[in-house]
Amino acid sequence: MPARVPGRAGRWSPGGILTYPSDRLYREVGYLAYHLHWSLDDLLDLEHPERLRFVDEVARINTRREQGV
Q1: Mind listing the pLDDT tens digit for each residue in 25-59?
Q2: In this protein, which residues make up the domain named DUF6760 (predicted)?
């Protein structure tokens, strides 16, 4: 039986697992695999915030390269 949330009479705890959209995960992993040549296992072992940080860094490098900096 789900636990009640303290102070919220009649409401149940939301609980459950939140999922990350699989299409977005594929885009991120594909982008990093293309640019970093890391294995799928290595990329999937990254925690979400860490993977996003790598995506941002690779994008920043690509932008600077395109601008000739």
Answers
A1: 999 999 999 999 999 999 999 999 999 999 999 99
A2: 20-68
Q: Is residue 26 part of a domain?
A: yes
Range of the domain at 61: 22-66
Compute how many other C-beta atoms are within 10 angstroms of the C-beta atom of residue 14. Answer: 8
SS3 readout for the chain: CCCECCCCCCCECCCCCCCCCHHHHHHHHHHHHHHHCCCHHHHHHCCHHHHHHHHHHHHHHHHHHHCCC
Q: What tokens appear for 1 in the block? A: 């039986």
Is position 32 within any domain? yes
Counting the structural domains of the chain, the total is 1
